[in-house]
Amino acid sequence: MSTPAVLAAALTGPIATKQDNPNLPTTPEEIAAAATTAHKAGASVVHVHVRDEAGRPTADLELTRRTIGLIEDACPVLIQLSTGVGLEVPFEERERLVEARPRMATLNVCSMSFGAGEFRNPPSGVRRLAARMRELEVKPELEVYDTGHLDAALALHSEGLLADPMQFSIVLGVKGGAAATVENLVSMVRRIPHGAVWQVIAIGRENLNLTAVGLALGGNARTGMEDTLTLRRGVPVTSNAELVERLVSVAHAIERPPASLEETEALLSLPTRRG
User: Fold this and answer.
1) What is the pLDDT of residue 207?
2) Torsion angle of alpha carbons 122, 140, 163, 196, nearest 10°?
3) Residue 157, Cα to own-chain centre: how many angstroms?
4) Which of 10, 21, 200, 269 could connect to 229 by a Cys-Cys bridge, CB 3.0–4.6 Å?
5) What is the torsional sign of CA 3, 202, 34, 78?
């Protein structure tokens, strides 16, 4: 029997704007609507970034709570909140987002060059955030952009700050991190501890190819307008749901059917839903 694949939709991200693609959801209402259609298309998880009224990335806690509430009112999809937020948002503001108590949130374990900017994740802050996530029972998704990031995540685990099973996102194709190649993906997958779960996030033109390879290797998969704004060269995406539908077709083609909500909760070992 084939193992179901957890399919996630990264709806917005911190970088693209409506000038890049007018279909990008940026308001709380647009994000909730995109979450609903992505879920109907087959995504069991939505990865959520929040934007302010000007469309800029924000760590405003009340706006985040409002956005989460709108999604929860609209559909039963599982919500993963980004603590990455955006390069210009201070770490101390970003880490407070877990006080919204989502069931899942990202944990970026290292600072790095990120395109033309700097993605700041100071070691002391990362340890503090990891400890707070464990205290609040927020499941961390460990975002690793290179092999050294994987080492840092394993060190956090050895310190008792991360519970088993660990959950990884292998992010490839960001300038400043590892390139989006099959060789890099396979090398990092081989080093992930037994029993951990993982997905590949391939940025840009290699999004579909490496996502398919990741599924074939037994990983989960993510798509969405954070990761790519085109279906193919010169063809803009019309919605997150369109990307999810394509990913669902790939998953079925290699006999990795999309996981249901209940299967996703079990596969990701999510904490019990709060009342």
Assistant:
1) 86
2) -110
3) 20
4) 21
5) positive
Fold that domain 7-267 belongs to in CATH: TIM Barrel (3.20.20)
Question: 3-state DSSP helix/strand/coil percent for the chain, to nearest 5?
Answer: 40, 20, 40
Spatial separation of the C-alpha atoms in residues 69 and 176, rounded to whole Å: 35
Q: What is the pLDDT of residue 204?
A: 78
CA distance 90 to 50: 15
Q: Tens digit of pLDDT for each residue in 50-99? A: 999 999 999 999 999 999 999 999 999 999 999 999 999 999 999 999 99
Q: pLDDT value at position 198? A: 98
Residue with tokens 């179901």: 4
Q: Which residue has the tokens 């019990």?
A: 272
Q: What is the pTM of this model?
A: 0.96
Cis previous bond, 271, omega within 30: no
Residue count of the chain: 275
Q: Give dist(CA 242, CA 177) in Å, integer.
A: 28
Q: Write down the pLDDT at residue 274.
A: 54
Structure confidence at residue 1 as a pLDDT band (50, 70, 90): low
Taking the C-alpha atoms of residue 104 and residue 98, their distance in angstroms, rounded to an integer, is 9
Structure tokens at 269: 């070992």
Q: Which residues share a beta bridge with 139?
A: 104
Please give the DSSP secondary-structure letter assigned to residue 80. E
Rounded CA separation 267/217 (Å): 16
